[in-house]
Amino acid sequence: MKIRSKLSILFTVLTATILLVFAALVYYSAYQSRETEFFKRLHQETLTKANLFFEAKVDARTLQTIYKNNRETINEVQVAIYDTSFNLLYHDAAEIDEVKETKQMINRIRTKKYIRFYQGDWQVVGLLFKYEGKKYILTASAYDEYGYSKLKYLRKTIWLVFVCSIVLIYAAGRFFSKRALLPVTEIVNKVKNITASNLDLRLDHAEGKDELAELAGTFNEMLDRLENSFDAQKQFVSNISHEVRTPLAVLITELELSTYKERSVAEYKKVITNTLIDAHRLSKLSDSLLDFAKASYDPSEIGFKEVRIDEILLDARQKVQKEYPQYLIDIHYENGFDADNEISVVGNEYLLNVAFANLLENGGKFSKNPMMTVNINFKNDKIILMFSDNGIGITEEDLKFIFTPFFRGNNKKFAEGNGVGLSLTQKIIALHKGSISVQSQINKGTVFTVSLPHL
Questions:
Q1: CA dihedral defined by 393, 399, 401, 402, rounded to 10 degrees?
Q2: How do residues 241-256 score in pLDDT, each as one tens digit?
Q3: Nearest to 23, CA basis, from 171, 154, 164, 166
Q4: Are 258 and 273 in contact (CB under 8 A)?
Q5: Which of 93, 98, 129, 430 is the most buried (most CB within 10 A)?
Q6: H/E element holding 304?
Q7: Which letter does DSSP use for residue 27 in this model?
């Protein structure tokens, strides 16, 4: 069932319930009012006839004649007069007695002095009447035909109005729910047209302040992320194909040339050496791509635990110096720490090791005298790591794209690389809720500053 139908039905049911309760209260109030007023009328009619019988001394035949004549046109009150010994003194129509008085009823009236009850649809009152020091029991009954007809008419009117109101309310609910959900319909139609080939499309209605505007805005933000992800993926695949194709082409060319004619042992060794260099380059590229893929996982799928930054730095230095023994790497503490939590973070040890090793290796590759310094500083709730080198530096133009995957700046002639390391490092630091920045001067060196929240 669509939301429009649900809202219409819910609105109709809610309103119908309110109307039904209101109608029931109105009908109950009218019913109670009719009953109370008619009992009062019976009481007054009884006293009037008793006064005619006792005070005015109107004989019984005359009173009965008046009753019979009135009964032909209106519902006349039927009155009976008894003494306390249950002797009937007067009755408007004993032959059609509706009350059927009993001695127990008379005694009850004498005890309570006033009672009222229903005899079928007839209303009955009984009261104690005093005249000249004597007590008499009066009963009166009548059928409120006019009152019941009014109630019947009111009941029919209520049901008619109720049914018409329900139909009108449902129609109004359908109309207004359609108007209210019109932006949702437009959003659905627009979303249906958004595919991987036109992720640049955006939803309207995102400028308001209601929930639909918030929904449209959130969806547009998601589309922005998807578009950026698709673009990055396309660029990534394009760069990968280019980076992998080059060393593969060189490998194939070297091997093909070596098979054209017989060569000396020295020439074969040279071919093998060049092939190994290209193979190592491919291996390193594949490792970097795998690490890049790991850093792109959902954070909930990556194992995080408490790790010490200084221990990871030492492991990264050992890893880099094992591959490049000529690199000199010093680690300095700017200030001391009193507890392990000050130098510990919640992170993934392997990924942090990769990030730090990339920064150390990057500093050594672009330095004629490969010497690097890592300064560790503690500030409030953060650990600040500064990776400094005295290398050739980075131009201002290249600094804008330094963290772009596969970007190689003007210094690519100075050392080989694939342009994945720094972008991978930035992704790893961001994954650990940290930040990385870079400052550089040509021929003076470069400083990478990493900030990570500690425990």
A1: 50
A2: 655 666 677 777 777 7
A3: 154
A4: no
A5: 129
A6: none
A7: H
Position 61 scores a pLDDT of 81
Q: By percentage, how much of the chain surpasses pLDDT 70? A: 84
Q: Are 332 and 378 in contact (CB under 8 A)?
A: no
pLDDT in tens, 38-53: 899 888 888 888 888 8
Contacts of residue 119, Cβ cutoff 8 Å, sequence gap at least 6: 98, 99, 100, 141
Q: Which residues pair with 134 in a beta bridge?
A: 131
CATH architecture assigned to 3-150: 2-Layer Sandwich (3.30)
Partner residues linked to 124 by β-bridges: 117, 141
Q: Using the structure block, give the residue that is written with the tokens 């973070």.
A: 345
Bridge partner list, 79: 140
Give the mean pLDDT of the chain: 81
Q: What confidence tens digit (pLDDT) does each residue in 207-219 have?
A: 666 777 777 778 7
Confidence of residue 206 (pLDDT cuts 50, 70, 90): low
What phi and psi, each to the nearest 5 degrees, are found at residue 316?
-65, -40
Contact 16, 186 (CB under 8 A): no
Look at the domain 300-453 and name its fold.
Answer: Heat Shock Protein 90 (3.30.565)
The domain limits of the chain are 3-150, 211-292, 300-453
Q: Under CATH, to which class is 211-292 assigned? A: mainly alpha
CB burial class (10 A; 0-12, 13-18, 19+) of residue 362? Answer: buried
**pTM for this prediction:** 0.49
Q: Output the CA–CA distances (angstroms, integers) from residue 346 to 84, 209, 429, 433, in the order listed.
A: 101, 38, 12, 10
Residue 410 clears pLDDT 70, i.e. is over it: no
Gap between the Cα atoms of 139 and 115, Å rounded: 9
Task: Round to whole Å and give the CA distance between 98 and 100.
Answer: 6
Beta bridge pairs of residue 436: 450
- Find out whether 405 and 354 touch, Cβ atoms under 8 Å: no
